[in-house]
Design goal:
Length: 328
């Protein structure tokens, strides 16, 4: 692949188009200027970390012979970044995406959604975790479900995302599968990132969060992880101790996926170029090292597979959001 890309870059020297990239006579496309990778949020979060890791590996391994600069475009749960990419267009702008590309438009907070962009590739999978304080009376997800069935309003659930977004809907999806009346759930939105502090301060009963956040506090003995949303038990220190929903008889899973998209009118050859570059990047030892450092799991999907996956996820989330009265 690297030799092929290198050949395409050499051939692109003649007749290259600054705005769209270049195509060799054999149909190959390659970028002819730096690529802008958008993280639609501030520094330090999942989108930013993913974008910078991809950029770092791409450049270090010389997967793409052009600079891939990361730019943060925070705001609107991702909507500000999506608007930027939509206006920028062309073949040299990409962005990292995840479930909010489905939730935010469904909530009516953005006019742009997944169908307004070109799916490049699915990259990684992470999972949600449902956490309680170490001294909580709930020792399993089924304990919590039983209490919710008795009185859905008696338990407060906090998440760091807005109502109707990732932390909220991961929990809604899980307890609905267990037979809880999701219309009466009490969800607290801690968009300032204070969810764990609220849990440890006994201000809420349950914290719906990402696996990484849960693992750190569980290792310190401050919380109990009632369930994680992976389809199968995970391997690794501490995380292997966390029970899945399915292990507790709840037939549900929730993948916190992340992938890459581009502008809607991106040239098909450019999209395939980036898809193959992502695939090659994920086969390198450097990527595997970075991936393991963050506790990610590979979930490569081609552009076509990614599009099909997004369409199915959209239908599922639309149904759930309508049921809890949060769909536009």
């Amino acid at each position: 692949m690297s030799l092929l890309l290198g050949s395409a870059l050499l051939l692109s020297a003649c007749g290259s188009n600054e705005s769209s990239g270049s195509s060799a006579s054999n149909g190959e496309w390659s970028p002819d200027k730096p690529i802008e990778m958008i993280a639609p949020a501030g520094a330090g979060g999942g989108w930013d970390t993913t974008a910078r890791t991809i950029s770092k590996v791409m450049e270090k391994e010389k997967i793409i012979d052009k600079r891939m600069a990361v730019a943060n475009k925070p705001g609107g749960g991702g909507a500000v970044g999506w608007s930027y990419v939509n206006k920028k267009g062309g073949n040299h702008t990409l962005f990292v995406t995840s479930p909010p590309i489905l939730f935010v438009p469904l909530n009516g907070q953005s006019e742009l959604g997944h169908n307004d962009f070109t799916p490049i590739a699915g990259v990684i999978a992470d999972y949600s975790a449902f956490v309680v304080p170490a001294n909580s009376p709930y020792d399993s997800m089924n304990d919590l479900v039983d209490a919710l069935k008795e009185d859905p309003t008696s338990i407060s659930v906090v998440g760091d995302s807005s109502p109707g977004s990732m932390d909220h809907m991961a929990f809604v999806k899980a307890v609905k599968a267990a037979g809880v009346d999701i219309k009466q759930l009490k969800y607290v939105s801690a968009q300032d990132g204070s969810g764990m502090s609220m849990l440890l301060g006994n201000k809420v009963d349950v914290y719906s969060t990402g696996l990484a956040e849960a693992t750190e506090q569980a290792r310190a003995g401050k919380v109990k992880v009632l369930a994680i949303t992976s389809p199968e038990p995970l391997e690794g220190e501490t995380v292997s101790e966390f029970p899945t929903l399915k292990e507790q008889g709840i037939d549900d899973e929730f993948i916190v996926w992340r992938g890459i998209m581009g502008p809607k009118e991106m040239d098909h050859k450019a999209a395939k170029f980036y898809e193959q570059a992502v695939k090659e990047m994920m086969e390198t030892d450097e990527w595997k090292t970075q991936r393991d450092n963050f506790g990610w799991n590979d979930k490569f999907m081609s552009g076509d597979e990614f599009k099909e996956f997004l369409d199915e996820e959209y239908k599922t989330m639309e149904s759930l959001l309508k049921e809890v009265g949060l769909a536009k």
